[in-house]
Amino acid sequence: MAVAPPPLTEGLLATLKGLVELGDRFGPSKDVPIAEQMKSLASRMLDHPSIEHERLAELFIDCVSELSPKTTVYVSLLAHVIRSGGVPIGQAVIRQCAASLEDSLRDGRHQSAVPVLRLLCAMTDAKVLSSATASRVLQSLLTAAIKCARSSIEQRRPAPAWQLYSDSLATASLSCLPYCRQAMAASEPKDVAAVLDLAKEYMTLRATPRCDLRFSPTVPAEAGDAPPPDSGAASHLTALWDALQECEADGGARWPELVVVRPPDAVCAWRKEAGVDVDEPLQGWARPLDESGLQITVPWIVPGISDAGSPAEVAARVLAQYGPRGGINLLPRDAVNGGAPNLERIMTDDLIIETLVQLHGQRVLCVKRLATINTKLNLGMVLAETLFGQLLRLPAPRHRPIAYFNIMTDLAGLKNVSFARPMSGCMKELFRLSGVLLPDVFARVGEYLAYHLCTHGMFWPWERWAHVVDAPAHDPQRRFCQHVLFRLLRASYHSKVKETLPESMHVLLQPEPAAQMLPPEADDDAAAVRRTRDLLPKLKAKASTEEVKAWVEAEGVLQDVGGVSALVGVVARAVLLAGAKSFAHTLAMLERYTEVLEGLIMNAGEPGRVAAVQAAAAVWAGHRQRFAMVVGKAMSMRLVTPETLITWAAAEDGLVAIEDEVAFVSTWEVFCMGVSRAISRESDARGELAAAKAELAAAQMRLQGAQRAAEDAGAAKEEAAKDPPPDKMDEDTGGPGPGGAPDDKAGNAVEEAARAVEKAKEELEAAEVTAQEAAEEERRALLLAVRSLAGLLPDPLPAMPSAHDLRPARVVADEKAAAAAAEGRTEEGSGAMAVDGEAEPAGISGKERSARVARQVLLCLASLVSLHYARFAPLAVDVKGLLAKKPDAVRGAVLGVFAGAQ
């Protein structure tokens, strides 16, 4: 068991506060000159006794790890402390760096290792470390990456089972090299060459050299086209390597242009004035310590990843630990970089991503740190593009989407960073790409824009998108606008949304949400409607469960409605209509008549559960959000199962609706809810099983302790009985008195501990059964999801429309107009939707419709498998069997997620 460190002394707390605020352009230190901050903090650090040096070094490393954009500032402080007589403090920092780096690499926590590695490299620039030391550490990571690649290739292991790990090692080394490259080249050019030679060797070994399309947020382009902007880790390393080579070209002429690796200008001026950048070695600094204290051992076998299971399962574990970095190109490169080297952009992205991870949950502080990153680039553009890249990361963002929504919303409100305009530019590009975004990415973009509008007074230049009204109903830009409005109505009033829209776009807005009440009484009412109308007044009058059961069991009811499943639908619809006033009323009615519904569903089985969902869909057809909330609650009450939702959604027309975005997104949402709930139940059951095992182990430990205590007490009593003291002798019998009798407390403790063990065993057995049932339910739900979506594909499968064919109508019209202008002629026709002088047709042919439906379903299937990659990996063989008779296009789109790069 780890021992908690002692609490910080007042002196250490004051030093920690100074370290956190050092160099900030906000807060208490924003008006204090950097020279004064450095002098004061260095003096405080030097005042600490030697017994506190190791703890001080730990605090220093923690600040560097959590506030990585200030690494160069902290290194400047450390160099000043060492030159001022704080050599022991510097040595303690070196020891802590070595220990922290080795621990992080041994455990495979590369996100924790990179800030420490960056600190070591920056120390070389400040002449705290020798270039040979930094080069040796960087080479150790690359050597491990090469050894991992060579061994895996020799053993013919699939690339997804190892390359993300080796790429992560190489990326860590190369991304930190710029912090020491200039100092290294000035002292020992061969050290730079050694690192680059190893990097070049590794780059030739990579199985996926350019782009891993498994995790691209856009569908693949046509054959022969360049791969689209993606979020694959493989392509990130390639981009990093290309950027390094760009800076190395022409004798390293572009290295001095990097700003992100240098301290802020104020710190540079102070360093020059304070003599931190002098060329002489630091007085009193022991160079041998540099060499011996930083012998880092880097594991070349993927640490913490079991090889048990299929290659797909191993790849899923590697992906979970060393997943893609996340990134997407949305803005013009020249505008973002402003002529700076590409390496400046990559390294700034690194600092932004690290800040998002390190300060997750500290929203205000995170925004302030992001807004003050020192870079030569247009920071607002970089922030916007990087945050969208993290939000749209596949298979899933690192944090919940709402975390990115909040950060982006706060940045848009700052005055010192121009974020709103670049954000709008990113949205403009995503709007243009709407036809090729994956369903999950499409939904995240729409949800973010709706959230942004709700927090910024509904202000948006809708007039620029008003042309979608004239586009065909299947046009992706029109569907995107419908999607945003669908999300917007979940967070705002219908009237408020309507008044902010141009009148021409009101046709895209759903009707005001409301429950679908029963139609007026008529002679031709269906039997189910008549019976629902008959039951509804009883429920509104709060009839008892027994009264409702009597109504259900009355003669003629079951035969009249057409069976038990239909009767479930009648009762469920009546219950929901009776509670339609509000969601609280709905919950109250469901809880009041749960026993009735459970009894009917038990008799009807799965068809009865589906009928209950159909009844909810009928009641809330005009309020899709309430429908999703109701079925979610019903699933929590075990009235319906995840499989029920999947079955219902697959039987509806929503998943194949290409001209009704609301129908598609609401149906797809329920479908995904069923899959996600099955997965979460399995995770919860696994957690409860682990807790039950821990409780049993603890109970057994307590029992052993009680038994030892009882044995010790018994032995002590026996010894006392042999020669009891006089005050313990009974006056009448001359024998031991009451105090000398065996102590029943110890025996009682043993019995109580034994009962606790038995109880823990029973709970463990119950938890094992629950975990097995949840695992089987998850397996059935996942395979049912694949089978259901595959069953929606047209047969025979039509030719898939290409990315070129999926362009929005406005994009096609603009391209034609531009081509006509280039040829010196005028494109005939009126409006942006006119093509070759003819108005855009209102509908599409049956062949094109079939092709678009097939593409939509196929993308849903591929997106589902990609999003839950780790869950589907153990079922790869079963999924392959389900798709065995499907065309190659279907198998390739789904199984390609397991196979690796396309």
CATH topology of one domain: Serine Threonine Protein Phosphatase 5, Tetratricopeptide repeat
Mean pLDDT, as a whole number?
86
What is the overall silhouette?
Answer: globular
Give me the count of strands. 0
User: N- to C-terminal separation?
Assistant: 46 Å
Strand content: under 5%
- Residue runs with pLDDT of under 50 for 5 or more positions: 221-234, 283-289, 829-841
| Rg value | 34 Å
Helical amount: 55-70%
CATH first level of one domain: which class?
Mainly Alpha
Count of helices? 39
What's the architecture of one domain, going by CATH?
A: Alpha Horseshoe
The major β-sheet equals: none
Structural class: mainly alpha
Description:
α3 (53-66) packs across α6 (110-125), α27 (564-578) packs parallel to α30 (606-619) and α31 packs parallel to α33. Among the domains are: 10-321, Serine Threonine Protein Phosphatase 5, Tetratricopeptide repeat; 333-433, Serine Threonine Protein Phosphatase 5, Tetratricopeptide repeat (Alpha Horseshoe). It has 902 residues and is an all-alpha fold. The chain has 39 helices and no strands. Helices cover 64% and strands 0% of the residues. It has helices spanning 10-21, 34-46, 53-66, 71-83, 87-107, 110-125, 131-154, 163-176, 181-187, 189-205, 233-252, 265-274, 287-292, 311-321, 333-337, 342-358, 363-371, 379-391, 401-412, 420-432, 439-455, 476-488, 494-500, 527-540, 545-552, 557-561, 564-578, 583-592, 594-604, 606-619, 624-636, 642-651, 661-722, 744-791, 809-822, 846-867, 869-872, 876-882, 888-899.
